[in-house]
Amino acid sequence: MKMKILALMLSVALTGAAEARNDSRFRASAETVAEVQNNGALPPAAAYLEVRPKLTAWARTLKTMFYPLTMSESCLARAVYFEARSESTLGQLAVATVILNRVKASDNSTSVCGVIYKGANRLNACQFSFACDGKPDVPDDMGAWNIALNITTLALTTDEEIPDQQMQIVANATYYHADYVDPYWSKSMHRLTKIGRHIFYSQG
Q: CB neighbours of 29 closer than 8 A, spacing ≥ 6?
């Protein structure tokens, strides 16, 4: 019975990943669905429907974290999640904008992941605190994680200016920090604006 439940969970997870990329190769077969529905040892359909959104979210998480073509999205989404998940959509997008601006400003074509995890081998001494705090970078709030993924998609794909005055102000921001700290480097930066608990800067 346990093996069948695990097989069902894997099928749902793969189906969720397939739906995310419109791929029908891994969709659960009609026979599998029929077996699940007719097997009294498996959870009732209602329980399956309750757990499916969570499994689909985890499937999206695994896809984003481990597919080579989405490593940049994975790193950026994790930065948005761990640095700004309590912020508004605008605040999260502003954090993503800073990271992407840092990538553009890099002298050696550093990747998104390279910028985010620069200095991550030094405990509590890197550019983005979540990357070197010694804790695993695995999201545990699927709702917030999905928002971070959506913010990442918006930040990476939009070609138009977002019609918000504050976002236009931070369009060239390359640094930010929380309002409860006072880093030494902020004195040499040009303060742009504050969104939520973060203060944004450009190089002065």
A: none
pLDDT, tens digit (0-9, with 9 covering 90-100), for 133-158: 999 888 999 999 999 999 998 898 86
Compute the average pLDDT of residues 44-58: 61
Instruction: Give the pLDDT band (50/70/90) at residue 10.
Output: very low
d(CA 38, CA 41): 9
Beta bridge partner(s), residue 178? 198
178 phi, psi to nearest 5 deg: -70, 150
pTM of the complete model: 0.66
What is the C-alpha to C-alpha distance for residues 50 and 111, in angstroms, rounded to an integer? 38
Q: How far apart are CA 100 and CA 106, in angstroms?
A: 10
C-alpha span between 11 and 134 (Å, rounded): 33
Percent over 90 (pLDDT), the chain? 41
The residue type at 15: T
List the beta strands (DSSP E) in the chain. 175-178, 189-195, 198-203
H/E run at residue 179: none
Q: What is the dihedral of CA 180, 184, 187, 193, to 10 degrees?
A: -30
For residue 80, what are its two tokens? 């948005």
Backbone angles phi, psi at 26, to 5 degrees: -110, 15
